[in-house]
Amino acid sequence: MDEYGYCLLKDALGPNQVDALYSRVLDQLEAEVQIGMNNVMPDKKQLVRFLLNKGQVFRDIVLHQRVHDVIRHVLGKEYLLSAFHAHIAHPGTTTAFHTDQFWMPPPTNERKQTLLKPGSVTRAGNRGHHVGGERAMAPKTIAPAVVCNTMWMLDDFTAENGATLVVPGSHLSGRQPDHDLDSNANWVPATASAGTVLALEGRTWHSTGVNTTKRYRTGLTINFCAPQFRQQENFLLGTLPEVVAEASPELLALMGFKAWQGYGGYENHGQWVKRGEYALGELVPEQHA
User: Fold this and answer.
1) Three-state DSSP state, 41
2) What is the DSSP string of 169-205?
3) H or E stretch including 223?
4) Would strands 197-201 and 217-225 be described as parallel, antiparallel, or unpaired?
5) DSSP assigned state of 277
């Protein structure tokens, strides 16, 4: 992870787990398509979002200890669950070079000038472009990794079926990949058998590969971010009540129900927050005789 910006955890899932996850993904996908929830991206990658709600078999893998050993190595002691999706790469997928913390503003230049204001970052304007032009091509300092994402392979990932492409060592470049300028970078497919987990730190250049076969390729992404940053999915609002009620303290903390360093709490809920319990509203003093 330190040298290349990614690593592979073999046999993180057993064959029975892979089969159960695969079956649940396909059933959920078919049912969502039937009601018009057909989340197909421009690169022909299809998503099934918010898997935390969509089966115990998904929730069972969120706290996988081997995976969290890697997440802690990248992010430190505390972090948040950011997103949990299924990714289906259909035949004909195209590449979309990016990093998973495209929204991180670049460091100041040698004159301590801000190249891009944090509130001015956009997905279209920052993802896949050399932000800051030539001034940012070889920065003396770079941002740390504040994201660590995982791809759980439910199929064998091969070069032919669109295995995730990575550029080893790109996490130390200090910039985002550009589709024109970086098309000939050292893009290599992260190939492995079903049951493997690919872990990527947030600065590593990657993309869905091109699926040249006649069959889709399926994986799950469980993504994590440092506690200072906004999660991709809003688990506080979107998670079903029965899922919250049954969640362990560890899972509740990952979802964001535990405040961090004074952030995320309110009034008398300084450490843990609960649904249906609110901060005080407008009050007036009692009239004294």
Assistant:
1) coil
2) TGGGS-S---TTTTTTS--EE--B-TT-EEEEETT--
3) strand 217-225
4) unpaired
5) -
Q: Give the model confidence (pLDDT) of 145-201 as tens digits.
A: 999 999 999 999 999 999 999 999 999 998 899 888 899 999 999 999 999 999 999
- Between residues 132 and 89, which one has the greater pLDDT? 89
Cα 2 to Cα 16: distance, rounded to the nearest angstrom: 32
pLDDT tens profile 30-85: 999 999 998 898 888 999 999 999 999 999 999 999 999 999 999 999 999 999 99
Q: How many CB atoms lie within 10 A of CB 255?
A: 22
Q: What's the token pair of residue 242?
A: 């029965």
Residue 169's alpha-carbon distances to 121, 157, 200, 223, in angstroms, are: 24, 21, 11, 20
| Residue 95: DSSP 8-state | -
The 3-state DSSP composition of the chain as helix, strand, coil percent (nearest 5) reads 25, 20, 55
Selection from 222, 236, 228, 183 nearest residue 205 by Cα: 183
Alpha-carbon span 265 to 271, nearest angstrom: 6
Among candidates 214, 210, 235, which has minimal Cα distance to 82? 235
Please write the tens of the pLDDT for every residue from 78-88: 999 999 999 99
The closest of 190, 66, 182, 191 to 128, measured between CA atoms, is 182
What pTM, to 2 d.p., does this model score? Answer: 0.94
